[in-house]
Design a protein that fits this description.
about 290 residues; alpha/beta; Spore Coat Polysaccharide Biosynthesis Protein SpsA, Chain A; eight-stranded mixed β-sheet; about 30% helix; membrane; Nucleotide-diphossugar_trans; golgi apparatus
Amino acid sequence: TSTPNVVTEGKPKLPTSTPTRKGKVLFVETTDRLDPSPLAACAIESAARTYLDREVHFYMKGIKEETLEEQIRQHKTLQLLSQLKNVQIQPLDFVSLFEGTPLLAWYKERQPEREQYAIHILADACRLVLVWKYGGTYLDTDIISLQPAPMEDFVAKQDANTINNAAISFHAHHPFLQDALADFVQNYNGGIWGHQGPGLLTRVMSRWCAFRHSSVVEEKCQGINIYNTSRFYPIPYTNWRRYFATWTPDVNFSNSFGAHLWNFMNKEGKKIVSGKYSVAEELFKKHCLST
C-alpha cells in the first residue's frame, strides 16, 4: 500500500509506521437482527468469494460472545456464512467499540427515540471507528462484490459532488478518519438524512483538497484514492429500480469492484423473482451461490 503524502499544516500527521493492512473486509449489523436478509447474506458471501486472501468480519449487535456458536446454529443463514472459510461472525458492543474515540461520549448521550435515522447514524459511526481502529475495507450489506478492490486507502463518489460512505478503505489510525470522527461530533445533525454519512465524508474531503466534481474522474488526494462512480455505484440511486429490470447488454460492471443496490431506496419492497433474469438475480446467481 502506498503511503499518503504528509498532510498540510493544521492537519494531523501520519504515524511514523503505517500499521499493516493485509486486510479485513468489514460488515456491520446495528440492530438485534440475527437472520440476515438475502441481500445482506449475498453481500457477505460475495465478499468472501471475491477477497479470498482476506478475512471477512460480520459484526452483529445481536450476537453474544458467550452464546455465539449456539446462535449461529439456530439461524440457517448464519450457518451458511460461517461455513465460508474466511468469514468470521463477531459480536458488536458499542461501548467497547467507541472506547478511546470522540464517539463514546456521543453514544452515551444520544437519544435515538428522538431521531428518525438513529439506526443508520449508528451504522455510520461504527464503520468509521472499525476502520480507524483496525484498518481494512468497510462495505455496506447491500453491496455485491464483483472483483477485488486494491488494498489501498480509498473512498468513492456516488455522483459528481458526493463521496458515499458505503465503501471505504483505510489503514488503521489514518488521519482522514481522525478528522471524520471529530467532524461526526462537532457538526452532528441527526435530522438530516446522510449528514453523518456521505455528507460527512464529502465535508472532510473538501477540507483536505479541492477534489474535482466529476462522476468519471479518478484522482488522488493526500494519498487517498477518490474513485469514480463506476467503482461501487455503477447504477445511480436515482435509477435503483434498474436492478430489478431485465439484464440487457447495456448493463456493464467491468469497471466495478462492487454494485451498490441502494436498499434504502426500495420503499416499494421490490423482490428478486427467480427466472425473471433481472440484474440483481444474475448478480446473485454468479456471486453468492451458497446463500
